[in-house]
Amino acid sequence: MGFVCFPGKTAIFGRHDHRSGKCTRIGYVCTRTMTTRPGLALPERAPRSRGVKSARWRLESRLDEQSSTQEKRDQNGVGKEAPSFSQRLTERLRTRWATLLQFIAEPLRITVPKPLVIAVSVIGSVFVISFVAYFPDWKTESKIREKIALFDFILTDIVHGYVDPVDTEQLFEAGVDGMLNSLDPYTQFEGNIAAREMQLKTAGRYGGVGLGIAQSIVKPEETVVLNAFEGYAFDRGVRAGDVIVEVDGTPVRGMPLEKVTELLRGEPGTLVRVRLARETRAPDGSRRLFDVVLPRRLVTIHDVPLYGMIKSYDGVGYVRLQSFASNAGRELRAAIDSMVRTGRLKALILDLRNNPGGLLDAAVETAEALVPKGSAIVSTKGRALGETVFVSDREPVLPPDVQLVVLANEQTASAAEIVAGAVQDLDRGLIVGTRTFGKGLVQNVEPLPYNTALKYTVGKYYTPSGRCIQSVNYKEGGALAAALPESENGRRFSDPSGTLLPALPPANGPAHYLSTKVAESERKTFRTLHGRIVRDGGGIEPDLESTLPKPSELEIQLLDEGKFFFFANRYAAGMASLPEDFEVDDKLYHEFQQYVLKDIDHLREHTRFEPGLKLFADTFTEAGYRDAQKDLERMRESILTELKRDFERHSDAIRQRLEDAIRQRFEPESRRLSAALRYDKVLQDALRLLSENRGETYTRLLQAATEPAES
């Protein structure tokens, strides 16, 4: 039995003889319309695809149909005598067995619709690629879970089995800090109190009374007022130098500073009674006690503490921006707008000195007030952060014809450098001062459970010209880095090539990041919008360098020991106000000298050189070098003589610090900062730049250099 198939068609199972035009094997079905012999109940159009199971079922069905047809023919008298039941059964089994063997021996070919093949292939490829791509992450996740479990075992064993009871919280934070300290100085775990303080700094407001407090240098058990904020505690009569005795009847002597802060803060709208002690001029050194009721309010820490027109220079405005909390851009816009409305603003000086930075969004909003709309302000790049370009989408509040000078120094960092870099790269203004800190890293603050947070580095930022001003490269380190010495500003010492000094690590020492300063030879040059040359890898370099005199040894020691602070307390005792033309005259300056020199032994024993001299003295004593010991004593006397001479050599700087400390006892911050500008050399250089040759010097410095930039 068989069937006729149209030539040129594709068989689903088995081969098809296109020359004869027939499918000679039973059960081989073509994919198109077929003409069959009588007795075969095949569909007019065969299905395009079947599985192995359906093919076998179909084969058995055809055999049954063939057998049934033969039996009917025999019953009608066609053919031979009908076989017995056993014969029919035997023949059927033999036929089926032979057909099955033939079916298994033939190769199985399945024709599948092309769209289905493509779909299955794509899905399979995606699955394979996804698995391969995820495999490294899966391995990383497995490692993370392994280390978490190990840390859990270690912490649990120590807490329950260590010889002495341990503080679980301190132990945990020590372990986390050790881990994060191996990365960079900015990646930190913030506990409950630290996380709350960080949130207050970034938000720029909190519920409190408006006081800045600290532990006393002379008497650490006392809490003293460092600053009373204008508009808050200052308006209620609290002054710098006052000692907090009680808060709502609770004595605070010897109390940790964090606890005193918690007592002062609270729900806005409530009141808190604070007992204070203020110094008097009594011979016995007694203090005057008094109570002040302070309302708790939503305290706003102003990012712009001072702004206004400089009286002695026509048309020059001044704004001091001290931080980048959430309101920085709004406050700067308001300050500039108020000066623009006077109709006299011709030039603006933006003071970013000693600004440690803050929020990235605040830096972008601040720059938007200065640069043209549509300008790229900063871009950020990171492994998980991706790349983002921040573009100004607002019109600047500073008119384009108003000249702009930004003051910067080595403590201008982070968000403040973003603003300075945008102003410089877009040729919107000039930078005056010294090279900035060089922090080009971006941190993310991730809130964690239990009122904690994680601050970690997620990327670097780049100024509009494409440069990253990060001055130090950090690398994950271990105990070796922890053994390396640190410089005065907290950075690791390095040799001229920029590599770390070698040192032997202590056994099982704490982990510490590795840091290398970007070498001058590695710094690349870029072009500003108008073609001026700028460089990366070392902060923002000023267009006009202007430096302040370096503090003298005497000045540093007087600051460390709080001499200005405590003398100001004594001077202000019993005085209601300062005269309008107050300044530190010769009489007052001589009085201050006597105050410092009355305890000459203390001054001698607390110089910055004394620890080194004492080490030499102990070594000479062990060695029996008596003459060398005498030389050391003569050296101490020489140092003391030099310190006394500093009173004359650096009298201007010492007088300025003394005047500022005294003014802090009588005047709000805005007036005190304004008075200090009279002695500001960098500000004077900026004013001279704007006024020289009717601004021609300013215009010349904004012009492009002629030498080509290096790649």
TrEMBL record:
<dbReference type="InterPro" id="IPR036034">
    <property type="entry name" value="PDZ_sf"/>
</dbReference>
<dbReference type="InterPro" id="IPR004447">
    <property type="entry name" value="Peptidase_S41A"/>
</dbReference>
<feature type="region of interest" description="Disordered">
    <location>
        <begin position="61"/>
        <end position="83"/>
    </location>
</feature>
<dbReference type="InterPro" id="IPR041489">
    <property type="entry name" value="PDZ_6"/>
</dbReference>
<dbReference type="GO" id="GO:0008236">
    <property type="term" value="F:serine-type peptidase activity"/>
</dbReference>
<keyword id="KW-0378">Hydrolase</keyword>
<feature type="domain" description="PDZ">
    <location>
        <begin position="197"/>
        <end position="271"/>
    </location>
</feature>
<dbReference type="GO" id="GO:0006508">
    <property type="term" value="P:proteolysis"/>
</dbReference>
<dbReference type="InterPro" id="IPR005151">
    <property type="entry name" value="Tail-specific_protease"/>
</dbReference>
<feature type="compositionally biased region" description="Basic and acidic residues">
    <location>
        <begin position="61"/>
        <end position="75"/>
    </location>
</feature>
<keyword id="KW-0645">Protease</keyword>
<dbReference type="Pfam" id="PF17820">
    <property type="entry name" value="PDZ_6"/>
</dbReference>
<keyword id="KW-0720">Serine protease</keyword>
<comment type="similarity">
    <text>Belongs to the peptidase S41A family.</text>
</comment>
<dbReference type="GO" id="GO:0004175">
    <property type="term" value="F:endopeptidase activity"/>
</dbReference>
<dbReference type="InterPro" id="IPR029045">
    <property type="entry name" value="ClpP/crotonase-like_dom_sf"/>
</dbReference>
<dbReference type="Pfam" id="PF03572">
    <property type="entry name" value="Peptidase_S41"/>
</dbReference>
<dbReference type="InterPro" id="IPR001478">
    <property type="entry name" value="PDZ"/>
</dbReference>
<protein>
    <recommendedName>
        <fullName>PDZ domain-containing protein</fullName>
    </recommendedName>
</protein>
